[in-house]
Amino acid sequence: MNIIDFRSDTVTKPTQGMMEAIKHAPLGDDVYGDDPTVNRLEQLAAKIMNKERALFVPTGTMGNLIALMVHAKPGEEVILERSSHIFLYEVAGAARVAGLQTHILEGVDGVMDPEDIKKGIRREDIHFPTTGLIAIENTHNMAGGMVQPLENLAAICEIAIENRIPLHMDGARLFNAAVALNVDPSEIGKYFDSVMFCLSKGLSSPVGSMLVGNEEFIKKARKLRKMLGGGMRQAGVIAACGIESLVKMPDQLIVDHKHAAYVGEALNQIEGLRVELEKIHTNILNVFIDKETLSSGTLVEKLKEKGVLANPRGEKAIRLVTHHDLNKEQVVRGVNLINECMLELR
Ligand code: TLP
User: What domain range is 283 assigned to?
Assistant: First the structure.
């Protein structure tokens, strides 16, 4: 069966260009700083983000964890939005490894109100922990790939500076946000002390994320990466793919966004499904199930039988993600199969 995989953009395989780049990449031991391909990738990432330095890390989760550990001391607090990936899906690394307490704020579609952040910052009191970090997710995964408005980031940045609290972005899908806003990624990154973005999602690399920040931040991050077991040797093999990701892939994300909009429009016409079309900013859609007797688990199972893969999102919604390994024909076929499935489930 020809599988149509809407589970995530993490399922994208390396492109032909990446496979070629692997073959020709000069290699060395990156723990010694000797891998020319990793060095090139890090320089490129820093340049794109207009930051002093960058660090290649194996995963987004490790990149976020390192940022938490560099910025905040054990016993301090990190301000996060309730449905953020760091809070929900990073195995409580913030608590267990970084020793941080999470201070959760309720957002609207993943967007925190700057006033709530202001109120959430701990004032000096013998009983209180210190607020060590504020972290923001952009695009916001649980909100269905929604983009954080730049005015909001600017307001939060001002508060962070006023209170001398560092600001980190979990920008796993930062390039999708940049494409949606039609700005350079650095225009979003400029509000942050550190940014993590993933190469292995819509940008199609097989492995890897980047952490960017100033020289001092990256120096500490490099040491913590080693401590966490992320010091890689001839990592140029995968960094070569990362360079391809940064040079060639951002321009094609717009295709994924168009596919997501198409899927949203089409599914919204199907009885029993509902999509909030105005909330499709990028390549993720939350599809709500408006049929009382149908759970997301059952729908996901039925779709799988037809060769369509999706992830449940709670009891009454599924998440669909468009990406480079789904062309228009596959996206259209996916929609038709979902329609067929809903008719059968009537
Ligand atoms: N997200 C994955 C799953 O873990 C849910 C996905 O399929 O969307 N930040 C954000 C906003 C993410 O969405 C993810 C991965 C990460 C961080 C972690 O990246 P990795 O998987 O590289 O550790």
Answer: 251-345
Q: Edge-to-edge, what's the strand order for the sheet holding 194-198?
A: 53-57, 209-213, 194-198, 167-170, 131-137, 77-81, 101-105
Whether 1 shows a pLDDT value over 90: the answer reads: no
Peptide bond into 298 cis (omega under 30): no
Specify the number of domains making up the chain. Answer: 2
Q: How are strands ordered across the β-sheet holding 317-321? A: 273-274, 284-289, 317-321, 311-312
Question: For residue 10, which atom of ligand 1 is closest to its CA?
Answer: 7
- Structure confidence by residue, pLDDT tens digits, 139-163: 999 999 999 999 999 999 999 999 9
Q: Which residues pair with 321 in a beta bridge?
A: 284
Q: How far is the CA of 320 from the centre of ligand 1 (A)?
A: 14
Q: Is residue 9 part of a domain?
A: no
Choose one of 248, 283, 315: the last residue of a domain.
248
Query: Which amino acid, 217?
Result: F
Residue 333's CATH number: 3.90.1150.10
Reported as a single tens digit per residue, the pLDDT across 246-257 is 999 999 999 999
What's the gap in Å between 85 CA and the centre of ligand 1?
7
Do residues 169 and 55 both lie within one domain?
yes
CA dist., res. 17 & res. 105, Å (int) = 42
The two three-digit tokens of residue 196, written as one number: 């993590």
Q: 248, 264, 288: which is the final residue of a domain?
A: 248
Give the position, in ligand 1's atom list, of the atom nearest the Cα of 311: 7
**Entry pTM:** 0.98
Tens digits of per-residue pLDDT, 5-28? 999 999 999 999 999 999 999 999
Nearest protein CA to atom 13 of ligand 1, as residue: 141
Residue 346 binned pLDDT confidence (cut-offs 50, 70, 90): confident
Are 46 and 107 in the same domain? yes
